[in-house]
Amino acid sequence: MKTEYPFLFSFLYNWAADYILLLFVKKDLYPEIKNRTILIGASACSLSYILWEGTAGKLPPYYRIILKWFLIFSILYILFKIRSVKKIGKTISLFLCYLFLMGGAVSFFLSCIHIKTVGGRKTAWKAMAVIWFSAGVIFLWKMKKKKENATQISKTYTYEVRISRKGRKAVYKGIYDSGNLLVSQITGQGVCIIQKEQAAKLLLPKEKSEIEQLHIQFSEEKEEKKREKNGKKKQQIEQPLWRMWAKQFQTGIYVLQYSTVGKKNAKMPGVMAEEIVVLKDGEVLTRTKGMLGISQEELSETKEFFVLLPNDIFDREESSNIL
Predict the structure, then answer these.
(1) Among 56, 58, 118, 299, which lies 20 to 30 A Cα-Cα from 285?
(2) Can you tell me the distance from the alpha carbon of 259 to that of 294, in angstroms, rounded to the nearest whole number?
(3) In sequence order, what are the beta bridge partners of 163?
């Protein structure tokens, strides 16, 4: 920014750029900081830049460089209330990456105006190098942060789950899912969802066969619904509701209906477990009984867990289990 520009124009131009930079840093590292604080910080950065410009010709060049970065780091330190050396390093690194990314983009845009000149092309290539380098650093940092967050969430909400039914026992790694709102009509409680391959440890041979048949039946019903949408309806003889319920109680294998994004009135087989024990670091958090929904789909692509615990698993009382 040249000093001969009017003060108001210079202030607004730098304020807008500083606000965008600080907003990006806030979003990535300090989501708890209020937007009002970012507005104040952008104003402070813009004013400090104008004051720094006023030192041109009055201070030696290296003094000006030291003063410039001192002002930037001081504002970041005060604005985000940084109290650790590690956080200072992260904040400054991220701020500089966004700064170079924005500066490179502006330089590239300005050089495009004179792209036909040799100097314009050279400037454009330099600006592109800055843009790609800054973008690459930010991308790698965000991927690292995403992985760290996923690991932290996994550690926080992952539990040891011990399940017993019909004399069979198995231990799984489960995760608490507050979004698992599937409720059994039989028990009136939430349903623990388990992968079919893992559920096999708890099933009798005959049950495995019947559940496999149910999965095939549900897949065929899904295809039939698609055909109905396309106008190719096939006449079906529906089973009386009482007969369906009688069969479920007789076999001990229930049909659970649920709806999720992209799936309406979907079905999965379910079986009752005599005991479900959830532990964290060896401590028993809950001991209950309930319905297990057996899913054909993988619950975790990374195979970090095999059971989805329902949102009410820690709110149950022993006396509320009706089966």
Answers:
(1) 299
(2) 15
(3) 170, 276
Beta bridge partners of 272: 291
DSSP-derived letter for residue 179 is T
Of 48, 62, 41, 38, whose CA–CA distance to 11 is shortest? 48
Contact 267, 292 (CB under 8 A): no
pLDDT exceeds 50 at position 237 = no
Collapsed DSSP state (helix, strand, coil) of residue 309: strand
Indicate the helix (H) or strand (E) that contains 3.
none
What residues contact 278, with CB distance under 8 A and at least 6 apart? 159, 160, 161, 174, 284, 285, 286, 287, 309, 313, 314
Angle between helices 35-53 and 7-29 (to 10 degrees): 140
How many Cα atoms sit within 13 Å of 221 on the Cβ side?
Answer: 16
Apex 170 CA angle, 168 and 174, nearest 5: 140
pTM strictly above 0.85: no
DSSP string, 214-273: HHHHHHHHHHHHHHHHTT------PPPHHHHHHHHHHHTEEEEEEEETTEEEEEEEEEEE
How far apart (Å, rounded) are the C-alpha atoms in residues 302 and 57? 60
